Amino acid sequence: MEEFRVSVPAESVLLQTPLFMVHQLLGAKMVPFAGYAMPVQYPSGIMAEHRHTRAAASLFDVSHMGQICITGPDAAAALESLIPIDVAGLALGRQRYGYFTDDVGGILDDLMLAHRPRADGHGSEYFLIVNAACKTQDLAWMRERIGTRCSIEAMPDQALLALQGPAAVAALQTLLPDVDKLRFMDAAWFALPPAIGRHPIFVSRSGYTGEDGVEISVHPWDAEPLARALLELPGVLPAGLGARDSLRLEAGLCLYGHDMDTHTTPVEASLQWAMQKVRRSAGARAGGFPGAEKILAQLDDPARVARKRVGLVAEDRVPVREGAELVDAAGRVIGRVTSGSLTPTANVPIAMAYVETVASVLGTRVFAMVRGKQVPMRVSLMPFVPQRYVRD
């Protein structure tokens, strides 16, 4: 790798991931993000990184995100008191998407939750990955609400790598021969080749790009050797936060703080699919989480839902960005764009937005206000490009 130094001012006191030196050597453009110095792109550029992920495999450093272990005999029930998903029914070696809700039904953060064997072989534990900007508040929330019921261990130094794209698993298989046995949302421990590292790694077949791929939780001492080994594999190139954002938008996946927040319920965010039936229908384990009264009432009576998250596709090739107001044919404001871009694969301006529920019907025509002009858009299905998860 050619050396290319990127300076991050010392006075910024930005945190560094275990791969900081690798990013510098690769010539990454570093930016402040959630308190960390993170690569937004490499010399090839965001568009090239995006396209390469869709065609082959890209390596993302997401070590800034929070990793947390929850243990104890009451761990599942304790987590269900904070998360409206079926934790108790999550099989060993499986993972689910979910979110923390607050007492009025807003989304505090979204997360991935895995049920895994303990690395020492004694029992099992729940492993959470939470957003970087929310991890401090998430820990405080959990310790306040369930800290006496279970053990909550943050893993602030643990690295997290995401290898994403149709060639990702085949590439990783050269290092981990059995990794191809995982299906979408399976997760398991693996041993690294001794030349790379000596600590076990935890691999889930998941990601946030809409592509097949894996996320790898790895000891900080082994993170750099593993990243270097992956980048030496044919077809694997580095990618930064810019491509990650455009990829997740095409996949119709929310970005916390933009497409959902504490002012948004899971039903308004169109994320009720993540609530399994046992947590939302009449029964012993339905409800029992913060904000359940409001969220379950919205599920029972759609008339209570004043707005909905939708996908939009522009009729003209005019990019529509976050914050753009949406109006109806009469010029009345009916919503706002929360994410938007002209993305490489979709090749049309796409956006996610919140609109009045009456305007959320597929095919409804709305107008985005861009520099004082109306850009016609239509409510569209999401994802905007096909997801290619491997489920079998």
TrEMBL record:
Lineage, uppermost ranks:
Bacteria, Pseudomonadati, Pseudomonadota, Betaproteobacteria, Burkholderiales
Q: What PANTHER family does the database record attribute to this sequence? A: AMINOMETHYLTRANSFERASE, AMINOMETHYLTRANSFERASE, MITOCHONDRIAL
Q: Which GO terms describe its molecular function?
A: aminomethyltransferase activity; methyltransferase activity; transaminase activity
Q: Does the keyword Transferase apply?
A: yes
Q: Methyltransferase as a keyword?
A: yes
What is the protein's given name? aminomethyltransferase
Record's keyword terms, sorted? Aminotransferase, Methyltransferase, Transferase
Q: Which residues form the GCVT N-terminal domain?
A: 21-277
Q: Which SUPFAM superfamilies match?
A: Aminomethyltransferase beta-barrel domain, Folate-binding domain
Residue stretches making up the Aminomethyltransferase C-terminal domain: 307-385
Tell me which domain of life the UniProt entry assigns to the organism this sequence originates from. Answer: Bacteria
Signal peptide stretch: none
Per the UniProt record, one Pfam family is GCV_T
**So where does substrate get bound?**
E215
Per its record, the protein catalyses: N(6)-[(R)-S(8)-aminomethyldihydrolipoyl]-L-lysyl-[protein] + (6S)-5,6,7,8-tetrahydrofolate = N(6)-[(R)-dihydrolipoyl]-L-lysyl-[protein] + (6R)-5,10-methylene-5,6,7,8-tetrahydrofolate + NH4(+)
Organism name? Thiomonas delicata (Thiomonas cuprina)
GO cellular component assignments: glycine cleavage complex
